[in-house]
Amino acid sequence: MLTDADLDPAPLHGRTVAIIGYGNQGRAQALNLRDGGIAVRVGLRPGSSRADEVRDEGLTLLPPAEAARDADIVVLLAPDEHLPAIYTEIEPSLKPGAALGFAHGLCIHYGLITPRPDLDIIMVAPKGPGAALRRLYTEGKGMVALAAVAQDATGNAWPLALTYAHALGSGRAGAGVLRSTFEQETLSDLFNEGAVVWGAVPALLEAGFQTLVEAGIDPQLAYLECVSELKLLADLVEARGIAGMREAISNTAELGASLGGPRLVDDGTRQRMRDVLDDLRSDRFARALSDEAAADYPRLRAERRKAAASALEAARRSLL
């Protein structure tokens, strides 16, 4: 794990960075770079709903191809499924030997983008949402990030990737920069999203809530027990680790966990997790993402409507 003491800021001195996209990561990265004295411009398509926000925060706004022209580093921070079309649009504007940056390895790992051979292809992937990256930076702290290089055309790709991580604040105390690869970052990130934190955990919360309500438990109480306490668990694990979390809870809770957990997470669960990982090692997930985007997200829209109308959400709203 590299910190500011290990990271040389010099490779970014005098360089111009173009940030394409101003959403979750785009805004945070652009502002962190700007506040660190790096020349930043933002690329958005005409009519973008984010345009006024970019201008209000004092950043230069240009169409994507113009923002990329003559920039030393062009970082693609729009949603993954839109990046291939954006790259096609900006490629003629990329100067020879420029660096193309990413915050996620999906498009490079699955071959959705085939970059020009003269470009450095780098990735700096903060391990958290952009809002937290920005907040930590303004507090003088940092967020752990992965750095990777997929194509080193100039021989300077690694120093550039690491200095970019430094500029985001990821080398500060309490954080650090871990060398990785596009493949490792992509598989681990997508696996977490599909099989652990963002996929399995919400489904488990919903199932627990439904089980209690079906057994006659008041929905508000079921929500408090099965959903609200998740933050207590997360805070304990963050502060003390899983072993330390077990030491901090009551004997009753610890015994219940030791008896109930293995009944839910068994060899069958682990095999289904391996199946998720196998889908990711192939290109099945990448194809599904492209198909979903091409159809204007019917599955995601349906899932959002279903979640908003659920009994669990009604219980949450009743407690506000």
Automatic annotation (TrEMBL):
Its EC number is 1.1.1.86. Residues 181-320 form the KARI C-terminal knotted domain. It catalyses: (2R)-2,3-dihydroxy-3-methylbutanoate + NADP(+) = (2S)-2-acetolactate + NADPH + H(+). Signal peptide: none annotated. The keyword Metal-binding applies. Residues 1-180 form the KARI N-terminal Rossmann domain. Belongs to the ketol-acid reductoisomerase family. Involved in the biosynthesis of branched-chain amino acids (BCAA). Catalyzes an alkyl-migration followed by a ketol-acid reduction of (S)-2-acetolactate (S2AL) to yield (R)-2,3-dihydroxy-isovalerate. In the isomerase reaction, S2AL is rearranged via a Mg-dependent methyl migration to produce 3-hydroxy-3-methyl-2-ketobutyrate (HMKB). In the reductase reaction, this 2-ketoacid undergoes a metal-dependent reduction by NADPH to yield (R)-2,3-dihydroxy-isovalerate. This is Ketol-acid reductoisomerase. It comes from Sphingomonas kaistensis. The gene is ilvC.
